[in-house]
Amino acid sequence: MEEDVVKSRLFHSLAISTVRPSKHLSASPSFQRCAITSWTRENLHKRECCFFEKGVREDVCRCGYLKTDHVDEAIKPEDFTGENWDKHKHVREVPTDAFGDISFGDLGRKTGKYARVSTDTSPEILYELLTEQWKLSPPNLLISVTGGAKNFFLKARLKNMFNRGLIKVAQTTGAWILTGGTHTGVMKHVGQAVRDHALSNSMQGQIVAIGVATWGIIHNRDALVHSEGCFPAHYETDIKGQGRLSCLDNNHTHFLLVDDGTQGHYGVEIELRSRLEKCISGKRLGNKESGMKIPVVCVVLDGGPGTLNTIYNAMLNGTPCVILEGSGRIADVIAQVAGLPLARVTIALIHQLMKKFFGQEYENFPHLKIIEWTKKIQDIIRMSHWLTIFRISEDHHGDVDVAILQALLKASRTSETLGIESWKRQLELAIAWNRVDIAETEIFTEESQWKSSDLHWAMFSALVGNKPQFVSLLLENGVSLRDFLQDEETLCELYKQLPSGIFLRKLAKRVHSSCRRRRKALRIRPRARLGQGEPISMTHVSDEVRHLLGSFTHALYPPSNMSYHFDVSTEVTSVSVSFPTGSQSLLREDDADAQRDPGRDLFLWAVIQNNKKLAEIAWELCRDCMSAALAASKILKTMAEEGSDADEAEAMRELANHYEKHAIGVFSECHNSDEERARKLLVRVSPFWGRTTCLRLALEADDKSFVAQSGVQALLTQIWCGELSVDNPVWRVLICMVFFPLIYTGFLVFRRDEVLHREAEKKEEIKTVEKVTGSTLRTNSRGLGVKRLKPLSSWYRLVHLYSSPQVKFYWNIVSYFAFLFLFAVVLMIDFQATPSAGELLLYIWLLSLVCEEVRQLFYDPDGFGFHKKARMYINELWNILDVLSILLCIIGLAFRLTTELFYAGKILLCIDFVVFCLRFMAIFTISRTLGPKIIIVRRMMTDMFFFMFLLSIWVVAYGVAKQGILIHNDNRLDWIVRGAVYEPYLTIFGNFPTNIDYAAFDLDSCSMNGTDPLKPKCPVLNENQTPAFPEWLTITMLCVYLLFANILLLNLLIAIFNFTFQTVQDNTDRIWKFQRYELIKEYHSRPTAPPPFIIFSHFYLFIRSMALCRPPVMSKEFKSELPQMEEEELLSWEALMKDRYLLSTQQEQSQSMERRILDTSQKVTTITDRLEREEETGSAAVMQRMARLEEQVVQSAKALQWIMDSLKCQGFAGKEAQPPTLTTTDESPDTLRNASEREDGFHVNARQLYYPNSKLTRFPVPEEKVPWEVSFSSYMPVYYASEDSGDHVDGSESEAVGNYRNPGGRTGIRGRGALSHLGPNRNADLVLTRMRDSENSVLEYLVVWDERHGTLALPGGPLESPDHLPVALKKTMGKLLYEKINAKVAEGTKVLEGYVDDCRNTDNAWVEITVLNIHLDRKSQLMVDINSMVASSRGALQWREVSGKTRLSSNQRDSLRQVAELHNRKF
């Protein structure tokens, strides 16, 4: 009982739990609803107003809800004079009352999920709701779609591209789409895309579209409210009656309805949505072991100022954004300026674009807002690595899905210090998304350098994740399969990750039985609970594969002591690996690795899981490809027979046929190229596939089409003829069988003679060529190392003649004819009470036949084993006839020797003669004409059996009825059977009965009382001695019986035979060629002498094997082992032929009609897209060109004006009047001049909108307004000083503040901010450098590690004196070391000194930096002291190589770059 429990748990864990995608156990719907309800009410809350205060209307509260919607305690008396309504004070949280399933009532719509949640809900709770309660698989990507909340128009082409791209990226990557969830604006477009996908792909996976909407603006939300949840809630989308509210979009799949206790206020969900996105982006991608986080991308369509803020904040948080040009408003504004230099993105330009794309809305925009938006747009453009513009007019962008994924990859490449880790991160994303096109174009480029070992993890992920395109891509880009599978641990891990299927279940049973046998051997009681798990190793895999291939094969993998342990439980399966000590000493490495082929290992792993695409890739890498294809056919067919799933079995059979075609294709190429080598491939021992042969694998797999190939049949014909030539006519062979001296006259040709003749012809050709060329090189080269063949001797000619299977067969035919003739003579003429000499000879002859059958049963050159050999023997029809004839003969002989059963014995022997005659038909199986016909006869016999069952129903029905009507109570069984069965059966063939008709009735032909045993009983007679039965009834019954039996059923039999003939006729030749092998093999192994002389051969074999104990002589005709060199050469040639076959297959596919139609369709689609794009963008392109031309004219006018001014200054003023200058109204002259003077000269960090470590927001300062010289009348920065506790000073400045002005320009904030004092705040960074070794190959610098923030920084601090180091370094390096380094300040080199673009800078306080480099001698005492300090700092101080991969801040990286230049080092 305990063992059954163990087995059940093991099977469940190995075959199910290890591959189950989710750990959740299925339960009944009612139980799931109760669980969801309990969890929801415990973790989710809503917000409700608990204090009613009159608002605009008498019955409406300040919260927006009606008075009737409040609880009783919230309504105060009329004379209540308490506090005023406060949102933060008078809104409380209570358990939510709106959750469950939502149904929109549309036809064909599936129900979605929804929940009403509070604004303060933890995003972790929401993520648990989505994944644990709503059973969503964790995403590989989060797509946040934002933009216009109002309905806007999208061009048809852009809309189609957006819908197609969004769905494609969500479907291929397993992404979640996050929107606002209402049936308006961009959310409506997303919903339509989801709907179109659902309608066109009903069988594929569902797209997850999550709507995060505000509860208080949802129309018809009352239908969603129920204290115990709604399963489902019927929601009606009422667009016409929604008013200022919004309806939920009926195409989203999940809804999170955010409640802050108010009604009618939009944007409540923004903060919670942002926190949820941040929470999801912090989760691990794919699995817990992965170091990648779930990537997030923001997709923008249309949108207003709020969308601009969303884009800005998203990019500051490191979220890449994809903006669709042409979608309208702010999206188009950003798209228009994205490609321009920052100097040209001015306030005037933003004004112009806002007016163009916003229309009437522009009139309501204040000038200060335009300034703020200009600053944000400039910052957005500056963060170009986070920004991607999808332009429908550009071909290289492709669809929206490519733009989204390219944006994420571009964002992951931003860090200059990541190196190979950056590429690895991108590749991990591409694999998770299953986008091989992105990986091919964006990752595997000339910039990325990969080693094979760097990609092993990716190869494993692609294999386990069933991503064959990635497997091909990785193999093309440097992955060595031999290195990847060099360690058996990797292969074991792959088998551990097999998907659920028949092989995994069978492997689990084998593991259990192996462990049970081991426990019994060690006398260990089985445990009720498996705490340590059950081991699995490649030995178990090898045993199972051998079972699938057949016991005649050897183990594919050598025994191994390394085992994997599955921790078996009902929930999770974990793995541990153990390496026993000394395990390597048990195996020789050469034996373990000699038969390993990584292509074979991967191919086998793919085949057993019925994975066609992966198997196809691995098959192309197999060394022994033809054996691999045939082995796959055998494995798949065996699994299909043993499997219980009909669909899975059918898929396996299809894949088996596919690889049979592969084997046929490769062999055909080989046979067409070199017939001799192709034959060697068929019978060579394959060390990679259990030391069996291709021919044996094809036969075991029942691959009739392969065996029927002309090359295989040519090999069989050659074996059939033995050493005789296959071109010898049969009549010559028959004559030489009798007159054997003719073989010495050349009457019969031997194979050796043909080979010698061909060599002689080649020599003659070479001599002819040498006479023409005058060179003897060919003769000398052919003479080296070639073993010359000699002609056959007279004795060997005679031996080869009579040992030929063909000659043996003919002698056996003659012998069988003689045997049947003797048998017939004995039965008819010479069967005496005492056996005569002829009869004794007959029995001796029968004994020789019995001995031959025994020899065939035990003869096992292929190593099948007795059980399989016995099954194969019994499954053959002719062997069944042999056994039946022998048994009848033995029984007949036993009866014949007794007096009482003498005649019965003769009868049995007569029947035995019939069986022997039927057995004689086996000789026709070798005939190309009669052999296929025997197959048809066997099939027709099967049809006739079922037909006889149908016919017997009519025969018995008519016979019993007729007998009952005519004869009264006949008790003679023999006459009953004759009348009920025999006579109706003869009636079908025209023997009509005479007792059913009065006219043909004869009273003398029957017996009245049935007393005469030789006559039938008379029918019932009347008084006139005439039959009393109704004549009309019996005649009618006979007519009906003949109509159905003789006409209908017999014609049905003819039709069945005709159908069988037509069906089988096309395959008979193939089946005959397949069955021909067994006959050839039988006579190849058969002794030379025919029966009865064969009995002497049997005596010899018996003495040889039993007395002398010699092994049987193994023939090399069916199985030969080649030398190592010849084996390698043959496999290389086979690989070349495989490549030819694959190339020809690809050419056939490319030239097929279907492929041509597909290519034509794609070309037409491409042309149509280009025409539509040119039509849409033609006018825009012209306008853009005109704008560029106008700009060039302006620049030319400026240049000419400058030339004229210069000439005037030098006294070359012209006499003519000055031409008018060209000016523009969009920008002031000061702005243009400053824009032309600089590009990136202004500080950037000092103008960040959000001041660090505070809640202050700087006044926006666009790029053009940074210089103090430029007029900026709207500039009103706030005052901030950290010690003033955020005290703001409005209006005038103090006198001290006015004395200092930032040299870098405006920053958007006044005061000293977070700096220590007004004016310059001087800091110093110390760069201590040294050479790593005596060769001066690597320059290193000293860096400080901040463990709290996880950052690196140069040692430094505030500078109090230019001649001394910062005092803060005393804390970092210690007082003694500080003083020693300080003494070397004078020897240092100032690398950099001046203003620093620091985020703490203000208009009146800024940071200035001095970078000092002190280079130290490796052997100096100071160097020794510093190294001691580094060693004792526990990682706080580190020596790092000076390189571009260093992880410092941007300012310190610039300083380090100059240090590298100072020492002539590459950075």
Describe this structure in words.
With 1467 residues, the protein is α/β, with parallel strands linked by helices. It has 49 helices and 24 strands. The strands form five sheets. A ten-stranded mixed sheet has the order 8-3-4-9-7-6-5-10-11-12, with helices on both faces. Strands 18, 19, 20, 21, 22, 23 and 24 form a seven-stranded mixed sheet that branches. Helix 33 (805-828) runs antiparallel to helix 34 (837-858). The longest helix is centred in the C-terminal third of the chain and has 57 residues, at 1153-1209.
Tally of alpha and pi helices: 49
Strand content: 5-15%
Q: Largest sheet, described in full?
A: 10 strands, mixed
**Widest beta sheet: strand line-up:** 8-3-4-9-7-6-5-10-11-12
Q: Average pLDDT value? A: 80
Rg (C-alpha, Å):
48 Å
Q: Compute the number of strand runs.
A: 24
Q: Determine the N-to-C terminus distance.
A: 71 Å
Poorly predicted parts: 1-26, 526-533, 562-594, 781-786, 1214-1240, 1285-1293
Percent helix, as a range, is 40-55%
Indicate the structural class.
alpha/beta
What global shape is seen?
Answer: elongated
